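Input record (one chain):
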Amino acid sequence: IANMNQQFGLDKPLLEQYWSYLGNIVRMDFGYSLNRYPSTVTDIIAQALPWTFFLLLVTTILSFIIGNLLGAVSAWPKAPRWLRSIATPFVLLTGVPPVIMGVLLLFFIGFRLKLLPLGGAYSIGTVPNWSWEFALDLLKHQMLPALALILGSVGGWVLSMRGMGVTIQGEDYVNFAEHKGLTGGRIFRDYYLRNTLLPQVTGLALALGTVVTSAIIVEGIFGLPGLGTVLQNAIKSNDFPTIYGIVLFITIAIAVLMAVLEFIYPLLDPRVRNNQ
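The corresponding structure, as predicted from the sequence alone:
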């Protein structure tokens, strides 16, 4: 008990513990895990972070691209009606919570149809290695969680992109391009899509918090060894240092990503750069 008190700093005055805790946070030292002692919270986060990072990276990029393309096409008046109607199902799925989306995919695709694994990072008994067989097995286990996140977030990008597209249709440069006799494909690509896509980068920064929260929930449903599963296990076992550490780490990571996007946006949009 005395050793535990010394490890967690409980033998020091309360004020000294508080200042020591703040100093450790600055150094990204969140202390020891109560549930997995003597492992540190930093080591636990480092082990789980790659799973969450790659899941978020792939799903965010795919949902951003798919949602914006569908939104732009649905607002483009010269697009065929059947092509514009493709975006409607994704918009309807926006209101489905990630918990329900994950459970539905798990039940129908994983349990009933048996097309993809029900959960886990890879098959039971498989030893991680650098073979193509393991990579394929890993990909199969990631498809359902990624699909749950993509289906839940594409509709938001469709709606925002559609609104931008409707607004930009009456701009002078779009009308000028039409009067020049440019083809519809070139107008859509160079004048319409390019100018509607730039403001969506700002929306990407605002959506990071929602995307991370959804990923944490989905990871717990499918049993991925990411930050979401670790956080849920820590909550169940009252592992407060791990809970504090993961929440603070996610908060700091989102703030840093938003700052990076805020810095990159003027480089992408000459209008903002010239105003600055």
